[in-house]
Design goal:
Chain lengths: ~450, ~500
């Protein structure tokens, strides 16, 4: 509850600061301070189990360790994102305060999505999470690509929201309890009524859209490519992870007992996502676009959690959220410092910027899923979950083969940085020492979680 | 467990420490000194540990078991047993040998080079000592990453493609193995920690040994594991990465790759594959032996027509490893015992071969056999050493390989005489291509390039002398090696 209230409050505060304060750096520091405070209270809520804010929400929200831990991860990752790329957000356009405010509203939506107990709350959460993103995507308003991306995102997003609402309606009408509560929708074992089956289908489609799973991924490359790079890094991490979290929670509580009836559909989505993401990423020349497709590929791996839907999957999605977000925010942070987004632009980076190249390597290895990095642990938990589930084990083999494919495009960047000669004439951007420090800290965290994932998972059982 | 420092601890942490020191070493020369010093220290530890091997009595010195991931039952569990001890010894001998032999070679940016080399050693040590499947997997991959960077940064012209091919092959294989590990893990029994925590399953080697799997499960799990190990060894048809990688990697890395890293595959088969999936091993043994023997004959034939001296040695290595793999799957006492000592011998011999090849390549810049001749005129010492190493490579009596190959062949013959006969072709062909190469490269009249050469320096003499001494010592008296691995062989045969 702390996170929901405080993010909303700080969002409003930042909006006013944007209007009244002249200073360009003030919003950033208020945002960092506010987010730190929110994070602390969220941790307090998770550890102590009670919130500073108490009012009757009629059980429409549910605060369990699992949910609260996800909020803490999302807030912590965003804080790291602010610390790393805060100065880039300031450069994104003239309305600095509003960018931070919008990100806070997104976080409010994320917190709702993490704790919903009824379909209505889910819907509201998803909307609060999405609408600020449409604005952020178009924030570079003199850039045609940014405009196109925002419009595309908005139209497609609005469409998928409509489908979700339709699904919710069907579910409401289809369940015998006539309830919005996610546990009461659960009909137990048995064949789903037709209305409910359509409801499940529609919800699955709209959530797949939100997490950019194929074949509902078409907006992703254009939006990720067109949006200002800092915002891409935010929406491809925290927001996407939140989408998956909602996916898993809803399907576990509401449709867990009829898993056998929709699992094939998820199987199809998973394979399609892995296929489309990985194969298309191989052919990209721009690192930013490659990362956009690779985020689809990673979504394919996260779909394994929806497919498996057991305890390992729930642990895995938390790990995946943290691991994938840290690595992606790090690599996008590196990307914002590059003049040339093509893979050739990375040539010889190791000689010019050894620390940045090393950190980027750690992030890329993590995204590939090499042991000692957080990415390995998260993929490992996903695979464990899928094997434990016991159905369609061949899916796991398909998934690891695609993970091997992903090595191809991630390693192209590593190869460029370390094994190729730099272009002579190019000037490199000077890096501030705080940026280097943050990058080092993120790389350290990636390795630390890779060695000892109970740093995160331990909170589930404390 | 105990509170004192154990041998496995030292064998892992000394190389890691050395690697870190190398990266931050002030000068390039310091890095080399640190790497050499620490690798000798590791050798000292490995040798010392041989005197504390009595099981039961020195258990606490040879095992390390820390709780790692409590909720899933994975421990950082490493320890030395007969098999692991022999391969850690090989690793410990191999690295200082490589460092001494290539001491005269110019290495750009040698701080990172030696740092990565030492990290590779740590990874290899971990693989050979791991007694927990997840620990094993971690070290298995950790040995790969530094080698990838070593080969890609310091390698030859086509290094980027060649090493990436190597990386993708092994990475794919190990991911498949990971699925296998997970599947077996999910079928292990509960594990209780000392403080009373109970986990549903366990990654411990002993738990893996006790797991009950049906025949069909074993079969497909066997395939998943075997692909990983077959790629690493490599066995036909998974070998295509290897000649390119050996050719393009800097020769000191190739020494590590061919002398020590290929043993990871054989080790994996002996430690993990056969005991965990005995039924499947019996089911597939003819397939594996046939693949291995195809590899032996095929690689030997390719080696005969090779003009590139590095590729020749690479193919010769494929042939030898193929024979070892076939001997493992013959699954009798003699053949497996032969493999055990041959793993060690092959490591020593192939490193010796590479040392000679490296000297030739460094001094002449030529890899083609047809462009070299008459090196014996200008480099007599090198030639003597090369001839000895080459004779060991073709398993002449009194050299170390003789005992091993003899045992492997008698075991294979005992299993099926036709297999032994066809694999025997490998030995004959090995003699053909090795002697042919020696004749062309070392004898005859010197040409413009080889006429100008000076004989080898003392560092190279020293390292080759060590190789030759080991060749003869083990060739004359192989019993200590057999004793060392005896218990491991017996333990294995009890399970299969």
């Amino acid at each position: 509850m702390n996170a929901i209230i405080l993010t909303a409050v700080f969002g409003v505060i930042l909006m006013f600061i944007g209007v009244f304060a002249k200073s360009k750096t003030l919003p950033r520091w208020v945002a960092i301070g506010g987010l730190s405070l929110t994070l602390l209270t969220a941790v307090q809520e998770m550890v102590a189990g009670n919130s500073f804010f108490r009012f009757n929400h009629h059980e429409m929200l549910r605060f369990e360790n699992f949910n609260l831990l996800f909020i803490v991860i999302a807030l912590a990752v965003t804080l790291i994102f602010f610390l790393l790329s805060g100065s880039e957000i300031e450069k994104a356009g003239p309305h600095v305060g509003e960018y931070f405010a919008l990100i806070f509203f997104v976080l409010c939506g994320v917190s709702l999505v993490a704790t919903f107990n009824t379909l209505l709350m889910l819907f509201i959460g998803v909307e609060i999470m999405s609408i600020p993103l449409y604005i952020l995507t178009g924030s570079d308003k003199r850039n045609l690509k940014s405009n196109e991306a925002a419009l595309k995102y908005f139209l497609m997003g609005a469409f998928s929201t409509g489908i979700m609402l339709m699904g919710i309606t069907f579910l409401y009408g289809g369940n015998s309890n006539a309830s919005f509560f996610i546990d009461k929708i659960n009909i137990g074992v048995g064949t789903m009524p037709v209305l409910m089956a359509f409801g499940v289908l529609f919800i699955m489609v709209s959530l797949s859209f939100k997490v950019s799973a194929a074949p509902f991924h078409f907006w992703t490359p254009d939006v990720y490519d067109g949006a200002p790079t800092v915002f891409t890094s935010f929406m491809s991490t925290v927001v996407k992870a939140a989408g998956f979290f909602a996916f898993i929670r809803l399907f576990e509580h509401s449709f867990g007992s009829v898993q056998d009836q929709w699992q094939r559909l998820v199987l199809f989505i998973t394979i399609a996502t892995l296929l489309v993401g990985n194969i298309t990423a191989v052919f990209q020349q721009s690192v930013k676009r490659m990362l956009a497709y690779s985020s689809i590929a990673q979504a394919g791996f996260m779909m394994l959690a929806v497919f498996a839907l057991n305890n390992k999957a729930k642990e895995g999605i938390l790990l995946y959220a943290a691991a994938y977000s840290l690595a992606t925010i790090g690599i996008f942070g590196v990307l914002t410092k590059m003049n040339d987004f093509t893979i050739d632009g990375f040539n010889g980076l190791a000689r010019k910027q050894p620390l940045m190249a090393f950190c980027a390597t750690v992030f890329l290895l993590s995204l590939t899923g090499v042991p000692l990095t957080a990415g390995f642990q998260s993929k490992f938990f996903m695979l464990m979950a899928a094997v434990e589930n016991g159905h369609h084990i061949w899916l796991v083999i398909v998934a690891v083969l695609f993970a091997a494919v992903s090595a191809y495009y991630y390693f192209r960047v590593i190869q460029a940085m370390y094994f190729k000669a730099p272009h002579q004439e190019e000037e490199t951007n000077e890096l501030s020492s705080s940026f280097k420090l943050m990058l080092g800290i993120i790389a350290g965290l990636v390795i630390l979680i890779g060695i000892y994932p109970e740093l995160i998972l331990g909170w589930l059982y404390h | 467990m105990g509170t004192y420092i154990t041998f496995p601890d030292l064998l892992i942490w000394l190389p890691i420490l050395a690697g870190v020191f190398c990266f931050v070493a002030g000068t390039e020369k310091n890095a080399r000194t640190i790497a050499l010093g620490f690798s000798l220290l590791v050798l000292g530890v490995a040798v010392t540990s041989l005197f504390f091997k009595e099981e039961g009595r020195y258990l606490n010195y040879n095992n390390v078991n820390y709780i790692w991931l409590k909720y899933i039952g994975a421990n950082y569990f490493i320890g030395l047993d007969g098999l692991g001890r022999m391969l850690t010894l090989l690793t410990a001998i191999g690295f200082p040998l490589v460092f001494v032999a290539t001491a005269k070679a110019e290495v750009k940016n040698s701080k990172s080079f030696y740092g990565l080399m030492m990290l590779t050693q740590a990874g290899l040590m971990g693989v050979f000592m791991a007694l927990d499947a997840l620990t094993f997997y971690f070290f298995w991959e950790l040995a790969l990453i530094p080698v990838y960077f070593l080969s890609s940064i310091w390698g030859g012209e086509k290094r980027i493609q060649a090493t990436f091919k190597f990386f993708v092959y092994t990475f794919t294989g190990s991911l498949l193995m990971l699925i296998g590990i997970i599947y077996v893990y999910l079928h292990t029994g509960a594990h209780t920690y000392e403080d009373g925590t109970v986990t549903m399953h366990s990654f411990a080697l002993s738990a893996f040994y006790n797991v009950q799997l049906s025949a069909s499960e074993q079969n497909w799990l066997f395939i998943l594991f075997f692909i990983a190990f077959a790629i690493k060894m490599p066995i036909f048809p998974f070998h295509t990465w290897q000649p390119d990688a050996y050719d393009q990697a800097p020769t000191s890395v190739t020494m590590v790759l061919s002398g020590i890293m290929v043993k990871m595959g054989l080790f994996g088969v002996i430690r993990w594959l056969l005991p965990v999936f005995p039924m499947a091993a019996v089911h597939f043994k003819n397939v594996v032996i046939i693949l291995s023997i195809i590899g032996v004959v095929y690689a030997s034939c390719v080696a005969m027509v090779q003009d590139n001296i590095k590729r020749l040695v690479a193919y010769s290595s494929i042939a030898h490893i193929g024979l070892m793999c076939a001997a493992i799957f013959a699954m009798n006492q003699v053949s497996i015992q032969g493999v055990m000592i041959q793993m060690f011998n092959h490591g020593i011999n192939i490193i010796g071969m590479w040392i000679v090849v490296e000297v030739i390549e460094r001094k002449t810049g030529i890899k083609k056999i047809s462009e070299l001749s008459g090196i014996a005129n200008t480099m007599p010492t090198l030639t003597i050493f090369m001839v000895i190493v080459a004779l060991a490579n073709i398993a002449l009596p009194l050299t170390n390989s003789f005992t091993g190959e003899f045992m492997m062949f008698s075991g294979l013959y005992h299993y099926n005489r036709w297999f032994a006969a066809i694999a025997g072709l490998g030995i004959i062909l090995a003699a053909v291509y090795t002697l042919n190469m020696i004749q062309k490269v070392f004898y005859g009249s010197a040409n413009a390039v080889t006429g100008e050469l000076k004989d080898i320096e003392w560092t190279e003499k020293l390292s080759l002398l060590v190789v030759v001494v080991l060749i003869f010592a083990i060739g004359v008296y192989p019993q200590p090696l057999i004793d060392l691995t005896q218990s491991a062989v017996n333990n294995l045969l009890v399970r299969i």
